[in-house]
User: Fold this.
Amino acid sequence: MTTLAAGKGTFAGGVHPPERKELAPGTLIEVLPTPSEVRVPLLQHLGAPCEATVKARAKVALGDMVGKPTGFVSAPVHASVSGTVGRLSVATLPNGRHVGAVPITSSEQQPLSGVALMDDIFGGEWPVGDVERYEPKAIADAAQEAGLVGLGGAAFPTHVKLRPSEERPIDTLLINGCECEPYLTSDDGLMLRFPAPVIAGALLAKHAVGADRVIVCVERNKPGAAGALARAAEGTGIRVRLLKTKYPQGGEKQLTVAVLGREVPTGGLPLDIGAVVLNVGTAASLARAVLRGKPLTHRIVTVSGAGIRHPKNLLVPIGTAYRNLVEYCGGLTPDAARAVAGGPMMGFALGSLDVPVTKGTSGLTVLTRDEVRRAEETTCVRCGRCVDACPLRLVPTKIALASRAGDLDLAQRYHMTACMECGCCAYVCPASVPLVQLIRLGKAELQKAKKS
Assistant:
């Protein structure tokens, strides 16, 4: 095994927002009753959109492919319920992008529901003793056919990560269980209740990429999850490492520094420094794809915040409207003011609850009027707090103000596209400058300029 310098368990910068994870503890995961309809977006991943493979009035079964990839960096999408396909429609994603979607009206009788569905996805035995019998290419192919993407939010097609090149050998696989966003506990729930498929998937991914070692990374505020994973990993050689609780510890570039002491170059990937990073949910889905031949059709979603009557963690069919999740959790409180897809730091405010859940949906956070009431924006005083907080050591205020002025060349010189939009800068800004929104605007304008 390669001997490597270890990181210090943390990274420079970052912030410590209130965690609020007690609202929806990961100790309980409920299965959302099958909705009457789902709308499966044809773009749920980074890369090329899918092309619909079904037509209106077609009958589909749970797990059938309904969208095929149109490029290498892409991932197929599958029916998350059994039912009848409607006319191809358009869905609005949380980031405001309009994409094609396959609507499916659910049949009265579903092959799996309730506890049986949970057991089919996460339960049962997960053998880990003979993963070497699978060819590395077969593991990557299974991930591709199952439509696996990063379930931590980035939604990068998993099969691409599992096909390393000879020019970039991999020595370490990091399994990311940090879940550093406030409110969100879906990964914590998976690690607590179903650690076995996470470990099985980690061993399969290790074999696929040819890594020497696997390290499962968990923040110190999740001791139960760390213990469950350590017990499941006994005898496998997998290490579980506790890291400092700090946002955004779960970012890939922060994780490699904290655990390995290696810094991903600007514009680069962990692959460039000999590492692959997979979310715990992605690892569990990989185990299901390889060992059971099942595609990604459901995911665990945290529904939380003071604006939700009964916060919960739910196992949800992909394509379900956020509205169904809210209704199952008792509805909104009278002072609910803003629904956010994801967590409050990196999530997108929703204009409607009819937006569908995607593979990258980790949560729905509903904030109250008191929580969203923000101070009036004032002039930047050049205090430098945003620079101190930035985990990538950028100068967020200069990027944001260049974007506001429409000077994309200047924003680029300040490395605008390197920004991960974590929100640390906006969190600490005493002038309440909407730094992240301005940077996102600049990136969108840059994309428009490249296409024109």
